[in-house]
Structure formats: C-alpha cells, structure tokens
Amino acid sequence: MTHILIAEDEFDIRELLTELLESSGYHVTSAANGMEALKLHQSATFDLMILDIMMPYLDGFEVAQQVRKTSQTPIIFLTALQDEDNQVKGFDLGIDDYIAKPFSLRILLRRIEAVIRRIRTNDEEQLSFREITLFPASYNVLISGNAVILTLKEFQILHLLLENPGRVLEREQLIQQLWGFDAFGDTRFLDTHIKNLRKKINVPYIQTVKGVGYKLEATN
Questions:
Q1: In terms of C-beta density within 10 A (0-12 exposed, 13-18 middle, 19 or more buried), how is residue 214 classed?
Q2: 140 dihedral zone (left: phi>0; alpha: psi -120 to 50; beta)
Q3: I need a labelling partner for 74 at 20 to 30 A (CA). Which of 110, 139, 191, 197 fits?
Q4: Dihedral of CA 154/157/161/162: which sign?
Q5: Fold identical between 3-116 and 127-216?
Q6: For every residue of the chain, which 3-state class applies, written as one string?
Q7: Entry pTM
Q8: pLDDT by residue (tens digit) across 114-155?
Q9: Lowest mean pLDDT among 83-87, 122-126, 206-210
Q10: Every domain of the chain and the residues it spans
Q11: In Å, what is the CA distance from 195 to each residue of 150, 190, 208?
Q12: Using one digit for the tens of pLDDT, what is the confidence trace for 160-187?
C-alpha cells in the first residue's frame, strides 16, 4: 500500500487530508510540524510527502532541503503561498509539485496519482530502442517521452520486437507466441495489428522482411 506522509500544522486540514487519502486507499502518517515530519522521514519509508510550507520549528522549504540531501522521495507542497517566487524556490529544491490553497480535493487526488505514477514509471524496468521506451510491468509505452495508448496485442508485439532488436521474428512465431495457435498460412490479422502499431508509434523502425516476418531496426 502506498504510504504518504502529511505535514500540516492546521489540525482541520491535516484531518481532512488524512481522511481523504485513507478513503482513497492510501496508508497515511501525519505530522503537525516540520521537525516531526523530518524525524518521521528519517525513521520510516514513504512513497510521497505532502508538506505545508508555513509550519513551526522547520518550514516546508527546510524540510524539503534536508530530505533532498539523502532521498528522492516525491514531495508535493500544499500551501497558502501562491506567489511565483515561492513556487520557483520549491522547484529549485527538487519538489515534484506545488499546489496552492484553497484546493479542490478531486484535483489534489489526481495530482497525487500523477506524481506517484511518474515516479514509479521512472523506477520501473524498461526496454528501449531509439525514441521507444516500453515498461513491461505497467504496460506503458513512451515515444520521445510522450505516452502512446496501445491495445494489449500491439503492446505484446512491440515488447517481443524490443526484446529482439535486429532479429527477424517470423509471422508464425509471433502468432504462436501471442495467440497460442498456428496460423495455417493466414497471417493477415497479424499484419493488421502491425499496421495499427506502426501508425500509433509513428517511428519507422518496424521493418517488414518480405515473406518471412518483422524486425525492429533503425533505417539509418
């Protein structure tokens, strides 16, 4: 379960955030000031920290600065300070997002989900070829850093090609591995999947070897 640390000196907001996140399936630990938050971070592992800036003992900037000396734990600032200078200061310290109060609970949840998803994608095992990056565990594909939505079979075809760069994969071999049956000469449904995959990724690396199959290879 994703473990989130909330550091907020206002009791009502701290309780609201705790209830919201726990009801959304997160495990939550809370702190009432920056010093407490830093001690908790040093004694436990968190997947995300949500920090107010204006807190007693240590403010959010000081906590983030100390955390970044030893950890890349994602940090979101949730604060009443809305000016650009404070936002820039936060991002310069290495925080991952900055949300100004008052805030929408629905948008806050989406921003939390986005940060966690981005960090986990960065940590995940990946296969790459030129502009293509594929994440087997999360079924994500990026082309030049931009997400591309593939069907399951398109994803599986690309996965096999990325595992075998430069190697020709025969049509019958692909069909047997992905569908679990022999094509008996009719491979047109595979060709349709390849056509759609090429269109979606929009990079010219899936090469046809006439009469044999396909391979992943750069043209230059």
A1: buried
A2: beta
A3: 139
A4: positive
A5: no
A6: CCEEEEECCCHHHHHHHHHHHHHCCCEEEEECCHHHHHHHHHHCCCCEEEECCCCCCCCHHHHHHHHHCCCCCCEEEEECCCCHHHHHHHHHCCCCEEEECCCCHHHHHHHHHHHHHHHHHHHCCCEEECCEEEECCCCEEEECCEECCCCHHHHHHHHHHHHCCCCCEEHHHHHHHHHCCCCCCCCHHHHHHHHHHHHHHCCCCEEEECCCEEEECCCC
A7: 0.58
A8: 888 777 666 667 888 988 988 887 788 888 888 889 998 999
A9: 122-126
A10: 3-116, 127-216
A11: 12, 9, 11
A12: 999 999 999 998 889 888 887 664 556 6
**Residues 34-68 pLDDT 10s:** 999 999 999 988 989 999 999 999 999 999 999 99
Tokens 């000396």 — which residue?
69
CATH class of segment(s) 3-116: alpha beta
Is the domain spanning 127-216 CATH 1.10.10.10? The answer is yes
The type of residue at 202 is: N
| 29 confidence band (pLDDT: 50, 70, 90) | very high
